[in-house]
Amino acid sequence: MKYFSQLTLCLLAFITSLPCIQIINGHVFAMPGTRDSSSPSGLTQFVVPHSCSSTDTGTAVYYPTIAIETHFPETITTALPQDVGGWNLTIIETPVTTPSGATAVQRTFNWTILSGGLTAKELGLFSVYWSVPTSLRGSDLTFQFPTVQYCQNGQVEYYTAPPSNSDDDDEGNGPDPAPFVKYSATASLTSASQTAVSSKSDSWSRSDTLSVIAIILSIIAILALVGYALKKFLESDMTHQQSPSAGKKLVA
Fold first, then answer.
1. 145, 70 in Cβ contact below 8 A?
2. Could you tell me how far CA 172 lies from the centroid of its own chain?
C-alpha cells in the first residue's frame, strides 16, 4: 500500500503541472498578428483576455468589462466592424488632416454591453474586416490599433502606447501596448510567424495541437504509472501472504 500512496502523490503533482490548456493572460491583442501581400484584406479579432482588477481592499477583486473601444488609423480606408451579440456597436468617423495636407477619416469602433459585463472567466472577441491600402502594400508596415477597456467599477485600461515605449506593467502606471498587426510586402513574415512560439496570435492553433498531444502522452504516462502501482501492490500482498509469520499455526 505504501507504493500506491507514494505513486498517488506523484500522479497528482504530475497532473497539476501539465501545460494541457493555454491560459491566456495579458493585454488586449490582435489576432492574427501578421498579414502579408498574399492576403492584404481580412478579419482581425481584438481579444480581451481579462477583466479589470483592483487590490485596493488588500485582495484582488475583478470587475467585468462593459465596453471596448478600438481606434483605427486614418491610413486604413476600408474597415467594417462586426456586430457582437449582446453588445451595442457604435461607429465614430472623425475627419482628420494627414501630414501631406489631405483629408482622411479616422474610425473608432465602440462595443458596449447591453446588460451585465464580460467577467474574468470569459473571453471577449471583437472583429473588424479591413484592408491594407493599395498604395501601402509595397512596404513592410506595422499597424497599431489603440484600444481602451472600460469596466463596471469605472476603471479604465489604456492599450495605446507603442510596444517599445510602454510601461507594460499592469500596475496602472501608464498605458500598455496597443494591439498591432504587422504587414509584410512579401509572404515570408506570415510563414515565419506561424512557427514562432513567441507570437500569441499565430501560435494559437499550434498550441491547441500541442495541448492535445500533451494530454494523450499524459494519459499514456498515467496508465503506465497506475499499472506499475498495481503490480507493486499485488507483489506486496503476495509477499505478505507467503511470509512465515502468516503460515504459523498455534500449538496447544
1. yes
2. 21
Same domain, 127 and 186: yes
pLDDT by residue (tens digit) across 4-47? Answer: 444 443 444 344 333 332 333 357 999 999 999 999 999 999 99
Residue 87 lies in a domain: yes
Q: Phi/psi of residue 112, each to 5°?
A: -120, 130
Domain shared by 44 and 20, yes or no: no
Using alpha carbons, select from 221, 207, 249, 245 the residue that is nearest to residue 31: 207
pLDDT in tens, 176-206: 899 999 999 987 544 444 444 344 444 344 4
Burial of 109 (0-12, 13-18, 19+ CB in 10 A): buried
- Cell readout for 48 is 480581451
Q: Are 192 and 184 in contact (CB under 8 A)?
A: no
